[in-house]
Amino acid sequence: MILFSNVSKAYPNGTKAVDQISFSVNSGEFVFxxxxxxxxxxxxxxxxxxxxxxxxxxxxxxxxxxxKMKRKxxxxxxxxxxxxxxxxxxxxxxxxxxxxxxxxxVTGVAGRDIRRRVLYILDLVSLLPKAQSYPDQISGGExxxxxxxxxxVNNPSIIIADxxxxxxxxxxxxxxxxxxxxxxxxxxxxxxVSHEHSLxxxxxxxxxxxxxxxxVSDTSCEKWVPVGEVEENPKA
Amino acid sequence: xxxSNVGYLLRQGVKNVWLNRLLSxxxxxxxxxxxxxxxxxxxxxxxxxxFVHEVEKKNELVVFLEDDMVKTVKxxxxxxxxxxxxxFVSKKEALxxxxxxLDKGGELFxxxxxxxxxxxxxxxxxxxxxxxxxxxKKIEKIKGVEGVRAxxxxxxxxxxxxxxxxxxxxxxxxxxxxxxxxIIATTIKMTIYDRRREINIMKFVGASxxxxxxxxxxxxxxxxxxxxxxxYGVLYLGYSYxxxxxxxxDVEVGPMVREGIVPFAEVGGWLIAGFVGVxxxxxxFGSMFFVRKHLRV
Lengths: 236, 297
Hints:
Chain A is α/β, with parallel strands linked by helices. Chain A has helices at residues 41-49, 74-79, 96-105, 111-124, 140-152, 170-185, 197-203, and strands spanning 2-10, 16-25, 30-34, 56-61, 64-65, 81-84, 158-162, 189-194, 206-211, 214-220. In chain A, α3 (96-105) crosses α4 (111-124) and α3 packs parallel to α5 (140-152). Chain B has a 4-stranded antiparallel beta sheet, with helices on both faces. In chain B, α2 runs antiparallel to α7. Chain B starts with a helix and ends with a helix. The chains are: A alpha/beta, B alpha+beta.
């Protein structure tokens, strides 16, 4: 479960990235966080990742109170999350296999299990033939799937994806979202930051709309009207 | 952390040396040059010390003896710690030495040979010339010693040379060590800065600080060891080459200098031990220290 309660984040230069936002995501939910560029979506991701600390309010994720979390607990906490970054963040000197395996190694999984699980997950994202390639030898879409495989391989209870379709073509985007939807059916909570309204609408999930650092709407996909768009058949 | 992980991290450290080969070459190069400078200064300092010691050995006290007291004095002289070597010079030899450049068949020589006024003597080499005064006083007290002739001025100069060579050696090696530490620290800092993104990714995947640090430390130690052995090899070859050239061209360096040259084997053990120790410690602690900054995410 993810809980944001009156959370604010101000940067040292005075910029207020998020201002008094509150929302919660239950276990097993699939939620989209949407908003224009600079709305505060990425800051929310950074706060969940504990890359940034909130300047006010309470954030609880997987039972951890992130404001009170000790330094030593951070790595353990992060292992409970699966994160897909917008820029993939793959280690360029590791092969596709090693990049995915690394997420298991940090948790102390035995060598034989690592091999079995990595090969399974690479097969799932159709990257088995590229297992020994380096990130710069594969396409952007393939790199995105490696990042996804690395996020999934640990069986995390929460998967966070920051613009997971931002660097790939529409066809692949639909595939990636479909895959996340399938994974969600197996139990993990999924939070996806996206600005692609068409994809968000296609999946029909809960949508939290952020603008200027505040939550402007938190509703189901059917009721969601993107900021700036005129609602069809508005009620009188 | 399981054993399989320890093995993986060690392997990863060694592998990183190759994967980051450009920076590895730069780091090993810098470290090797620093070691070469320190090693050369050390060898120079050792040799200077040895030359001074050779000069020291050539400076003898002349202990004049009363008649028939040769054995008694010898026994007492041998008991003095600072005495390194004794050489007996009989009256006859002394006279011959005095006349070595003159005509031995001359009238004066023949006359003096029959009633030789010179006493028997011992030529005494000392371990430490700076303690010459003390030793002379001890010798003068020995029964049967008629007098002692000591080259005080030479002793003073040698004593000064010894301490100058010793302290100059310390200062030069110490200074080079400090400069080297600064250069090496900057190189390690640059190497790690170049890989900050990699460290950052590892942190977000959930790697603990120790898990990230170990391969960097292993890598640092491997680079330190490579530089240590490389510098040792270059110094060995360079030193041997220099000695060969001296032999080949029969460089006229004089017996004192020739005898004063320190064989590489005498210093080599200290050098390699120092290089390996300093190299691995700098590699390990440097990496550990500079990775720390990037772990705070």
